Amino acid sequence: MLRYALRRLAISVLVLFGAATVVFFAMRAVSGDPATAVLGPDADQAAVEALRREYGLDAPLPIQYVQFLRRAVTLDFGESFRLHDAATNLVLTHLSATAALALTAFAIALVLGFALGTLAATRPNGVLDRVVSVLSMLTQSLPTFWVGIMLILVFSRFLHLLPSSGAASPAAMIMPAVTLALPLLSVVLRLVRSGLLDVLHEDYVVTARAKGLSETRVVGWHAMRNMLIPVVTVAGLEFGSLLGGAVIVETVFAWPGVGRLMTDAIAARDYSVVQACVITVAVIFIVINLIVDLLYVRLDPRVRESV
Amino acid sequence: MRSPTTRIGALALAGVLGLTACSFGTDDRAGSGGDGATTLRVANPTPVVSLNPFAANSADQPTLTVVQEVFETLVVRADGKIAPKLAESWTNPDPLTWQFVLRSDVTFADGTPLTSADAKASLQALIDGKGPLAGLWATVDDIRTPDERTLTIHTKSQLGTVLSNLTLLWIAPAAKIADSAFFDAPYGTGPFKVSSFTAGQAVSLVRNEKYRGEQPKLAGISYRYIPEVSGRVTALANNEIDATWGLPPDQLTGLRGNGDLTVTSFPTYANYYIWFNSSRKPFTDARVRQAMWHAVDFAKINKSLFDQAGAPATGPLPAAIFGSAGQNPYAYDPAKARQLLTAAGYPDGFSTTMMWSSGCCTNGNSFADAMISDWAKVGIVVKPQELERATWLDKLLKLDWDSTMTTGSTVTGDADFTLARLYLSTAKRNGYANPELDRILLAARAELDQDKRAALYAQAGKIVWDDAVGIFPLDLNGNVVLRKGVEGFTPTPNDLPDFAGVSLR
């Protein structure tokens, strides 16, 4: 088990190194000079040169790359050209907003997904099952930004129930979190439903029922445990796309998170912030994958045996 | 009968709904004034990334919008004329020297009195900051403070734009100016001071209790950045903000019908223009550039795209700017366009490109489409290139383009800012080089007599217009949308909404 974890960790470090390299060179491959982007077209050429020197952009690319890696190891990504603050600080302050949003969305998707999926599975082809199926198809296929705008229209513009943007009150979290949760919710829901339907016909479920166990115990314990593995895998992987979706949701709802920080930074060629954001997101991805892998071991005795 | 699983599901559902249904409507407007005054909540269309008025962002609209409530200038431009502010009078002992006498009753928000040393330090900071406004002061060679109330600015050569330039020189305390942390929550001599600032997101201002004038009726102003137009409009309609500005014209039509809102439109210092790269064929020939202008039916396009968003341009600078002058309009005349093209050696037209940066311009994409379809009618095939701003900027400065569409503002309200910055042959901004134009622009800059200066800019404007360095189709209107109850707002042509005199009912 320990060896397994260590090997996974070593691969993670490699992945992280790859992500850092790709973002470093990708940002520099795109045209547009950061010093000019910050100072604008009317800046004095000497000022542009001075800024390039100040941020080490005048050095040859390989040297910049080595510098970047060396500093990145100590979590120093340099200073933002645009916001005049350490990139690491900026990412950390914005990360809490994104984390709050993503975790809330994740919780909504899991809880509602399990609840509705279970309800649908216990009455296959019932009214509820059909309604839930249609809704889950819809929520997965509708574009996130459109859903966000529609929610704003209905709940802010017409009903005046919720604030349309910002993060000033807890209520401001509801619409962005729901918007972000919907695609994942429908995935979880369908996995839970089909997983439960599969196992509910298994012999051991019949046995459990025959033993006279209550339906709650049969479904909630015996059946549930066996359909958890695919759900955990997908939910873990989807947490990554949740972070991707956050970029759009944060723009629609003016939510002050990492997604918005990153899009603004890309537009301004703010290298240090883009690099810090991408590497942070990569770390989150890697950690989640690790957790998923380790959870497997916990959930599935067959995997536990093999490692 | 309900099955137990149904009950589990229902419970879970109720739990989630209960969790998320927290109360909404925390009142963030309670004032600090103690007199029932409230804070005005506004949403800016572009983010405030810095509050330092001396460096890279010194000409940025979002930065200036906030800075003007916190700092003051020596002089201001009011109704097109220069008026005293922190300086009570000024003289020219000789044509190279400007002497200003400061008011004696001014203190900064921390209680220290304003002295000429603060003015000197501020000007020095702007010059040393090497931002977009530093170039305005390139000829300054000495700044002196003979006494606490006198500031003298000496220039190497005559500089007729000193007063206009001073309208963007914000006076900050000399002791703090070198401290970059000061600009995280700066204060000056203006009616408000900054209480909190998160770069790129939000700024909060509160009253400056030491302000020498009448205290503002507002307890403060809170600015926040809402990137999406629909988000800002909804926040306004939903009473989450009291004001916003810079909305696209298609949104205004709907808002005018909303009884809770007041829409104000007003002329600004900003205009639309399409430049040709005069150093690149076929635009090296003025007749080709003029043909491009005659080929487009701007009257029709303006009417359909820019209903109340602007007025047809009368010259290369909007009418509200000092030194602007009306020029002979270009008629929509495709036949004449063809003649000019034939004369220039392009009887069958030619192929070219037009670039712009996405989001640069009000209704930009539709405007480009409309022009391109008119150009096609005279045989000119124009390929549109919508680029990301950083890429566009890169190509622009390298003169690596055929034509470009953009909007620009003359932030000082003085023709020199735009004409000398963009059209001197040394500026190398559009490939146009004309020694006669250079001579006029430099003479205008050196002229201390403001009437003569204005006459020279009228001549310069005529050359830029008649030679069709670019097409100048439209002077842009600004707009501010306020909720009913916001009173006393007066728009200014610099399009920096000033809320200091506003009250909230």
UniProtKB/TrEMBL annotation, chain A:
<dbReference type="InterPro" id="IPR045621">
    <property type="entry name" value="BPD_transp_1_N"/>
</dbReference>
<keyword id="KW-0472">Membrane</keyword>
<keyword id="KW-0813">Transport</keyword>
<feature type="transmembrane region" description="Helical">
    <location>
        <begin position="227"/>
        <end position="253"/>
    </location>
</feature>
<feature type="transmembrane region" description="Helical">
    <location>
        <begin position="273"/>
        <end position="297"/>
    </location>
</feature>
<dbReference type="Pfam" id="PF00528">
    <property type="entry name" value="BPD_transp_1"/>
</dbReference>
<keyword id="KW-1003">Cell membrane</keyword>
<keyword id="KW-0812">Transmembrane</keyword>
<keyword id="KW-1133">Transmembrane helix</keyword>
<dbReference type="InterPro" id="IPR000515">
    <property type="entry name" value="MetI-like"/>
</dbReference>
<feature type="transmembrane region" description="Helical">
    <location>
        <begin position="134"/>
        <end position="159"/>
    </location>
</feature>
<feature type="domain" description="ABC transmembrane type-1">
    <location>
        <begin position="95"/>
        <end position="296"/>
    </location>
</feature>
<dbReference type="Pfam" id="PF19300">
    <property type="entry name" value="BPD_transp_1_N"/>
</dbReference>
<dbReference type="InterPro" id="IPR035906">
    <property type="entry name" value="MetI-like_sf"/>
</dbReference>
<protein>
    <submittedName>
        <fullName>ABC transporter permease</fullName>
    </submittedName>
</protein>
<comment type="similarity">
    <text>Belongs to the binding-protein-dependent transport system permease family.</text>
</comment>
<feature type="transmembrane region" description="Helical">
    <location>
        <begin position="99"/>
        <end position="122"/>
    </location>
</feature>
<feature type="transmembrane region" description="Helical">
    <location>
        <begin position="171"/>
        <end position="192"/>
    </location>
</feature>
TrEMBL record, chain B:
<keyword id="KW-0813">Transport</keyword>
<dbReference type="Pfam" id="PF00496">
    <property type="entry name" value="SBP_bac_5"/>
</dbReference>
<feature type="signal peptide">
    <location>
        <begin position="1"/>
        <end position="25"/>
    </location>
</feature>
<dbReference type="InterPro" id="IPR039424">
    <property type="entry name" value="SBP_5"/>
</dbReference>
<keyword id="KW-0732">Signal</keyword>
<protein>
    <submittedName>
        <fullName>ABC transporter substrate-binding protein</fullName>
    </submittedName>
</protein>
<dbReference type="InterPro" id="IPR030678">
    <property type="entry name" value="Peptide/Ni-bd"/>
</dbReference>
<feature type="domain" description="Solute-binding protein family 5">
    <location>
        <begin position="81"/>
        <end position="428"/>
    </location>
</feature>
<comment type="similarity">
    <text>Belongs to the bacterial solute-binding protein 5 family.</text>
</comment>
<dbReference type="InterPro" id="IPR000914">
    <property type="entry name" value="SBP_5_dom"/>
</dbReference>
